[in-house]
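cache lookup: miss for this entity combination. No prior model stored, computing from scratch. Input as submitted by user K.M.:
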Amino acid sequence: MTGFSRRVEQVSISGIREVFEAAGEDAINLGIGQPDFPTPEHVRERAVEAIQAGDVDAYTSNKGIRELREAISEKHARDNGFEVDPEHLIATSGGSEALHLVLEAHVDDGEEVIFPDPGFVSYEALTNLAGGTPKPVGLRDDLTLDPAAVEDAITDDTAVFVVNSPANPTGAVQSTEDMREFARIADEHDVLCLSDEVYEHIIFEGEHRSPMEFAETDNVVVVNACSKAYSMTGWRLGWVAASNRRIERMLRVHQYAQACASAPAQFAAEAALTGPQDAVDEMVAAFEERRNVLLDGLEDIGLETPTPKGAFYAMPKVPDGWVDEVLARDVIVVPGDAFGAHGEGYARISYATGIEDIKTALEVMRDATQQVA
Ligand SMILES: Cc1ncc(COP(=O)(O)O)c(C=O)c1O
């Protein structure tokens, strides 16, 4: 039999790509999920140096070079208030591989994975690939995930719940109190909390706290990456932080599926984490300015938008037919239901693009709104 696995047949190619491909060449792209800034110069230079010194020609250790894991460990102590031994980290091919490792190593056939809806598309797909059962949970009106809703959704079959703050596609930031609650729920229900913190640094209001800081057991694992904070999506460098026994299980997957993260990217990531952080601050300031322009514009048009406090997405409520009208005018936005059934009636607008384009796009959105009113 040369058929395909049931697991892979449950997953389809992301709807977001289809939106891009249908758009004209001159379209303004507010569908993008990556920063539009260059990778900082000193980060690029470190990779070039490592390549020229011949330091990247061989496999690294499966977990990643020691220097990088030490830098990640120091970063967590400095920024996140928790200690993680460099041995309890695996450098991965982006945050994506890290998410895959967590689910593959912890979810048995049919076990449930709870995740925010609307939420990042990988949670459902990777749950299916791991043989698990996706259990999307709707959000509060401000588009944050309610710990009480997670707790209600937990059954004897639940293996994992996912927390993502700041969040894609909503831009929502969970409060410190929520993060404490997520840690308590993981501890008390003996369920794993997967905290996806890839947008950690892109935050304008509130502060990022990790549930790992509050957990009393090893039931929280953290996924992070250089992709968004350092504008390094193409480098493919992320990591997972967890306890020894969890890392040992995830390494079983990583060593056979990946061997090690790309060596040049590992050197570059070490430079990103230990070097000057000005580029991050500049990027965050630019995102905040664009967010404010976008929010003012959407309010002026009359589209209700929960205030995004982080990442680089806004999610206004939009009338029926609105997304199609916007797309027909060559502005790319993503329909909210691409991120889960509860996303219906919303659109995701990325502001990882220049302010002039955002202003032009707002005029198009005004036009589209009048058209469907
Ligand atoms: C919430 C979230 N987690 C993880 C990722 C994966 O990031 P990476 O590019 O590091 O694989 C993304 C990318 O868009 C994301 O939005």
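stored under new cache key. The pocket of pyridoxal-5'-phosphate is lined by residues 33, 94-96, 120, 164, 168, 196, 198, 225, 227, 233, 238 (CB under 6 Å).
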